[in-house]
Write a structure and sequence with these properties.
285 residues; alpha+beta; two-stranded antiparallel ribbon; single chain; 5 helices
Length: 285
């Protein structure tokens, strides 16, 4: 028989070992929980590999805020397990909107898009410019047609200035009359060949008849033996100044003509002499 002291010692060791066993048990249970918890969380959050309906989209989680729907169909598997190595699935990204041409009313969306060029949108909203369509040339000619130059109208040539068709003596009287009119404030006179021709014919008649002096509203005449242009101007200015200096008359034709005549005197008119009568006509208009 063991002594009473030994029995108490054994009981004390058993009592000491009981808390120690309990502590080890709790530590083992806690360790198992710590190991199983992350494994269970991973298994619960791992995507299922079972068969799924390809028409039902599944949702993946990209981050803690946004959830993006994926329309990628699940590949249908057969009953027999495949021996091929599974391909890792690519996580779908956010779909990007692609600009497309505005559909034309009445178009069927299921129809195959035509080959007609459409307007491609530019990067910015303010740069939406479209190239104008180029009309095809007739006959398949790709070369551009050069416009035919339209000939310009030739410059209109003004008719030659009428010189009045005057002789040197007639031109001298014309200049004397024109200068006097300009000094009196009138505009320079124009020349007219028709007026000159009429004045010259009238001067011939007056030289023949001897009636060399007359004044009308637009015409004046003077004459005498061997009368020069200066003498005719002085006579016209003195006798017909109202016509010569009339600023309302704008054109002038001067005519000059001569005629020879004879004068006789003395006893029985035996002594005769010949003279030249000059007639001047200024015809205004």
């Amino acid at each position: 028989m063991s002594a009473p002291g030994a029995t108490r010692a054994r009981r004390g060791r058993r009592a000491a070992e009981t808390p120690s066993r309990l502590k080890r048990t709790l530590v083992a249970i806690g360790t198992v929980i710590l190991v199983i918890t992350p494994i269970s969380w991973i298994l619960l959050h791992e995507p299922q590999s079972d068969q799924a309906d390809a028409s039902i989209p599944y949702v993946t989680r990209d981050d803690d805020t946004y959830i993006t729907a994926s329309n990628e169909p699940v590949v249908q598997t057969s009953d027999t397990p495949s021996t091929s190595t599974p391909t890792p699935r690519v996580t779908p990204t956010k779909p990007t909107r692609t600009p497309s041409a505005t559909p034309t009313p009445g178009d069927d969306p299921t129809r195959t898009p035509s080959s007609r060029p459409t307007t491609v949108p530019t990067d910015g909203p303010g740069d939406q410019t479209s190239t104008p369509p180029v009309e095809p040339t007739r006959g398949g000619d790709s070369h551009s047609t050069t416009p035919t130059p339209v000939p310009s109208k030739p410059p209109t040539t003004q008719p030659p200035t009428d010189d009045g068709s005057m002789s040197a003596d007639e031109q001298q009287l014309f200049s004397l009359i024109d200068d006097a009119r300009v000094q009196n404030g009138c505009a320079p006179l124009g020349r007219d060949s028709d007026l000159t021709g009429g004045a010259r014919n009238e001067a011939g008649d007056r030289a023949d008849s001897g009636d060399v002096s007359s004044t009308e509203q637009s015409k004046a005449s003077a004459g005498g033996d061997d009368m020069s242009a200066q003498a005719a101007f002085d006579r016209l200015k003195n006798n017909s100044s109202g016509t010569v200096l009339n600023c309302g008359l704008r054109e002038l034709g001067v005519g000059r003509d001569t005629a020879r005549y004879r004068t006789c005197g003395g006893l029985l008119n035996l002594f005769c002499s010949y003279h030249t009568r000059v007639a001047w006509v200024a015809d205004f208009r």
